[in-house]
């Protein structure tokens, strides 16, 4: 996976972005765009109107006839693609870049709906996009130019970190680790909270204790140059409480095997859903 450089991104002019869909993810993207892009939003039923300075329409027929976006970002549900995407076929004549953040929609399936090979970037953000802390990963088809990849990098960097994979199939692994990953940490938070309650702490205090522990650990990982392995070793004193707990996790590599099975199950499901065209 490669990541964009500041030199690549700073060379871009203020590109025109057409955002199709203004749900939570679309709103998160817009919040980071206004300084770098000219934004137009289309959504027939927005939960709330976009912020000031953004052109907004309920359908693409309302766009000016000479409007030509540099990129169209598809932030609609996968099951809506067959209905929504054909309305934007005319932009393929200009080799406009299409960026999809919809789970389970392959580049080939997008091209099939559009009816012609066209520049497409398929990207997988995660839930942390809502607070501009996503790890988003993209795949660009061979029709994309370097400038179009730069636009995609800059647009998707608005919600956190961004990187590329060279093989679209790798997005299944990205989905299993990063896309679904927040739920794994939420589950661990639930389990530790339950354990604290079972051992005598009140529910509210248990929740606060575990939540802040998670926040603190994540902050250390984010701010440290050391690996997670080194950080774990640093907090594990020989003969101490942490060592006793980790011995249970590591017995016969039980925790590793469980996580490996979970990730592989998610990868297989992602592959299946991509073929079915359903939502992850």
Topology:
Elements: H1 6-10, E1 15-20, H2 24-31, E2 37-42, E3 55-57, E4 71-74, H3 81-84, E5 97-100, H4 107-114, E6 120-124, E7 134-140, H5 146-156, E8 160-164, H6 170-179, H7 181-198, H8 203-223, H9 228-235, H10 241-250, H11 254-276
Parallel strand pairs: 1-2, 1-4, 2-3, 4-5, 5-6, 7-8
Antiparallel strand pairs: 6-7
Helix pairs in contact: 6-11, 7-8
What's the short version?
It contains 11 helices and 8 strands. By secondary structure, it is α/β, with parallel strands linked by helices.
Care to describe what's here?
The chain is 45% helix and 14% strand. The protein has 280 residues and is an alpha/beta fold. Strand 7, helix 5 (146-156) and strand 8 form a beta-alpha-beta unit. The two termini are 22 Å apart. Mean pLDDT is 90; it is low at 2-12.
Summary tags:
280 residues, alpha/beta, eight-stranded mixed β-sheet, 8 strands, elongated, disordered N terminus
Count of individual helical segments: 11
- Percent in strands: 5-15%
Helical content stands at 40-55%
- Outline, from the CA principal axes? elongated
* Beginning-to-end CA distance, first to last residue: 22 Å
Radius of gyration: 22 Å
């Amino acid at each position: 996976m490669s990541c964009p450089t500041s030199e690549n991104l700073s060379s871009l002019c203020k590109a025109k972005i057409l955002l199709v869909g203004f749900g939570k993810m679309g709103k998160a993207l817009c919040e980071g765009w206004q300084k770098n892009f000219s934004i137009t939003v289309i959504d027939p039923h927005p939960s709330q109107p976009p912020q000031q300075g953004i052109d907004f329409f309920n359908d693409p027929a309302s766009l000016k006839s000479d409007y030509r976006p540099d990129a169209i970002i598809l932030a609609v549900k996968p099951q809506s693609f067959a209905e929504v995407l054909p309305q934007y076929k005319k932009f393929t004549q200009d080799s406009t870049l299409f960026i999809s953040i919809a789970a389970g929609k392959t580049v080939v399936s997008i091209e099939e709906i559009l009816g012609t090979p066209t520049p497409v970037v398929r990207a997988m953000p995660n839930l942390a996009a809502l607070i501009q802390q996503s790890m988003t990963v993209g795949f660009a088809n061979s029709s994309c130019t370097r400038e179009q990849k730069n636009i995609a990098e800059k647009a998707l960097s608005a919600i956190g970190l961004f990187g590329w994979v060279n093989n679209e199939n790798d997005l299944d692994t990205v989905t299993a680790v990063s896309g679904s990953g927040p739920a794994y940490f939420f589950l661990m938070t639930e389990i530790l909270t339950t354990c604290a309650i079972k051992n005598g702490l009140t529910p509210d205090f248990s929740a606060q204790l575990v939540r802040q522990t998670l926040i603190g650990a994540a902050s250390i990982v984010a701010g440290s140059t050391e690996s997670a392995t080194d950080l774990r070793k640093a907090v594990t004193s020989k003969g101490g409480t942490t060592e006793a707990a980790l011995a249970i996790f590591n017995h016969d590599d039980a925790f590793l095997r469980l996580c490996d099975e979970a990730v592989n199950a998610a990868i297989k499901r992602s592959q299946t859903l991509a073929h079915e065209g359903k939502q992850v």
